[in-house]
Here is the input.
Amino acid sequence: MSADSPTLHPHLNVATLRQLYKQRRSEEIGSTGLVRYGDTVDEEWLHQLRGVRGVRIFREMQDNDATIGASLYSISSLIRQVDWTVQRAHEGKGAEEAAVFLEECLVDMSHTMADFWAEVLSMLPFGWSYFEKVFKTRDGRHPLDPTRNSRFDDGRIGWREIAIRAQETLDGWEFDDDGGIRGMYQSAAPNFNRVFLPIEKCLLFRPDLNKNNPEGRSLLRNAFRSWFFLKRIQEIEAIGIERDLVGLPVIELPHAYMNPKDPEKTKARNAYATLLQQIRRNQHEGVLFPSETTEDGTPSGYKLRLLSTGGSRQMDPGAVALRYQKDISMTLLTQFLFLGMDKAGSFALSSNMTDLFAVSLGAILDTLEETFDRFAVRELMSINGFPEEDWPRYEHGDVERIDAEKLANTLKTLSDGGFLTPDPSLEEHIRGEMQVPPMPEDADVGDDDEEALMNATPPPAVSSTPDVSNAEDTEAEDVDDAMEGVSRPEQDVTA
Here is the structure.
């Protein structure tokens, strides 16, 4: 069929239909389904966790709860100790130059990369973290001009800082018609001026993503309900302990004070009620109270006593609180923090928990690496005119340290079975994994030595069962040699 042949539609030919199809393919028809009104995201169904209110609650959770604080500290500490390295694209000169330039930019900012990653990890409790990329011209030492001050003077463009824009300063989001994120509105102290931070100039980190929500999803979201009840149980427990130690104060008054029609008696009764509520055992303790008897010894009707409680409670608040603490640690995959506290747990169980925990940390590191490489490193390389095939990557290392004993046993098993042949590259990798100094350059294996190592054959196997038949002959030969040595005179041996 030719391009000009008629089609089912009387006014459109094949070429026109193809053009319409191409336009249709490039057009975005649907949407992410993110619930938002204006510049406010309304995806969270709990009102107290929406927007800045949710930020404040998550801040309280991480600052006031011991289990959450320990879990977040474990996560952040393990992530921050991971080594980051610049990996060149290939072995060519251009790739080496681009990699060296990236390494220079990483150490030429007003803050360290360790501080930067620490700020990035604020996304864990809050669900997101937003950073503004600020550039500078590398024009040598200019202490009074931060837009030019640099340790290098090649005139290239580098990072001046990648600064966080705190979650508490959020004042709304800007979206395009298709639901894409255009940027964040910020209102920060001390002036509280509303400014717009475009997404092209910023980095947005999120540990979890749903519907392209710019506010992500906090790691503490699933722990909120357990934290909510745990907080109140701890408060009730503290009040109960105080009452059990001090006792329940009781004031008895004459019947006249119970008359609601007497304003003077009512006022006095309210004063006694306030006194009753304020009785505490502290440095200001003391009560001024009428005597229980009059001057002639008759009862006055006034009496202050402490009603003590005896026996145990039907519900142990400590056990209930511990259950909620374990629920919180379970949502963060840090159950191993409780192993041994209740005299339960095994090494195998601990190993399984920590392995799963390490996998989750690796997923978080992959997210950080991909975001930073795609929206920071690539932009920096493009601004400075490096060819795309020379662009390096900024990659993270492993979370867990390798077990040297397990590695040695595995290598020995593979080598003995003939599945692994030692060579310089293998030794270099093993030295790196075990964190031992690299092989000196003057100790490199030569070609002849490497060939001999590759062609080496293992020594013959030695039988563990002694050969009884040859034992007597060997012993007899040893005796004859010894006797011959005694009877033969010594000879001088000259060089």
